[in-house]
Amino acid sequence: MISLDQLCARAGQFDLRSVTLAVPDGAWGIVLGPAGAGKTTLLEAIAGVRRVTSGRVVLRGVDVTTVPAERRGAALVHQHAFLFPHLTVAENIRYGARDAAFAREVSRRLGADVLEHQPVSSLSGGERQVVALARALAAEPSILLLDEPFAALDPRRRARTRSELRSFQQQRGITVLHVTHDFEEAGTVGDVAIVLDAGRVVQVASPAALFRHPANGAVADFLGAENLFVGTIERLGDGADGVAPLRFTGEGLVLFAVGDHAGGAGHAVIRGDEIVISHGGEGSSSMRNAFHGIVREIAPAGPLARVSVDVGPTPLVAIVTGESSRALDLKVGDDVVLSCKATTVHLC
Amino acid sequence: MRRPGSPWLTGGLVASALVLFSLLVLPVGALVLRGGVAGVRQLGVDGELQRALALTAASATVATLITMVLGTPLAYLLARGRLPGGALIGALVELPLLIPHPVAGIALLLAFGRASPVGGALAHAGLGIVGSPLGIGLAMLFVSAPLYVSAAREAIARVDERYEQVARTLGDTPFHAIRRVTLPLASRGLLAAAVVMWSRAISEFGAIVILTYNPKVASVLSYDRFTAFGLDAALPVAAVLVLLAMLPLALLRSLQASAGPRDRHP
Questions:
Q1: Which of B48, B59, B66 is nearest to B236 (CA)?
Q2: Predicted local distance difference test score (pLDDT) of residue B264
Q3: Choosing among B160, B163, B164, B170, which should be mutated to test the A contact, i.e. which has the most A CBs within 10 A?
Q4: What is the pTM of this model?
């Protein structure tokens, strides 16, 4: 388990401020946040290579705040790999290994064995990252700290490496804390997601909950919410456990939602894939939110299409499959109806 | 491939570079041309010159080795900013480079001469620095060690500290991380620093002549023959000394030319 209690650390002019979080034993924690949020500083403080100014670092139930890095059992993989250039690839992988046979297995499973006789200087960025991962795993850490370890890998190798790493992590019960900017990756491997901003933890949740229920407008914006509006929230009654019907008014929209927001200024977030597009009248349905609008743009995005519809000063964006778009015969300039349930509107 | 540019600018740059280059190379070139062949010939028959050169090289080597052992940790601490008051300490270490070398000799005499507590104790133990090879080595170390520390500090600072951090997270103690990672990565720079120090040490005159006129090192012998017998007698000794200094310099340049990308790419 990685547990941080009010952790503060300094990196130059940057401060990590009172970070408290927990990643359970054997879980894969994802750290998200904009550039300069303190993600790398956080990993370095946990690894023991960045001085902690206050607070506690607890690994596997032991307070290691003052324990030197080499006795923490936490291996750190930097984005830029930092392979030792005076050693061969094989020597790099064996650097911290206690069991040569295990180091060979790690190398083989990650596909680094074919690189072992090459000088480090001849490796591509992606190959360096694979070797850096193998080197870290070969040291048999109980904690693995990853700073964008797949950033330089091509999609195919990324999937394979991630899968092997996940397999090692599950077999050996390694607790992982992984910095990434890849939201898809966060959703694929993460058990718990932590959002950092300006040196503070803004939200800790499962990746699914994080994307559906961002803590505030800034988190929603960072996570790339397709529809984010600023306005005023009113409670329309009292419900059980504080959950009540809500009305959001702002940016030319009136949205109905359900939640525990206390009311006042706030943000409305609607995921693009929660919005339904139809031609013709609103008809009768259980959808509490429906808007007429004109299709402004249809942007293909792989098998999906991102449809922007003018319904007010700010367009609403719906994500539909390409097939749906073709079935509806959607064209720019079409008059359409967008609708979504109140339960899909997140107010924060 | 021709590059666009003003011919006047190019001509001006070349002319000014040539003036400085000539100022630096002509005197040494003249010395080697006039005395080089005679010096090499004399080396085979002149016992005093042989002894002076051997003493010079041995003293410079010992001074350089001692500085490498004691100066590398200092250079590391300065490079990594681990010393409180590091800027002041760095400046104090470089002070011997700024004072005239005869003054350095006088300072050494004051600190380590027989009249000083340290010098008295050393003399009592049979390690007097005045008129002894020990004095020669001490003078060489004092005036040239700052060059080693300064260059070693830069060489270590060029090694990204994150290499050490990775080694620490793989189980290395700080000492082992430095020994297994930082020093090998800085080795070319450290060797270059040692070569520069050695070259400077063998050409030292001012501080040595105050502490130890006899036995003579090559620079003192050259001066001695100049004052006693004139220019023609001093020339071969001076030329051989220049040739000796050029050897490590050539090695240094070849090291720098072969400095590959390993220090630059993570």
A1: B48
A2: 45
A3: B170
A4: 0.82
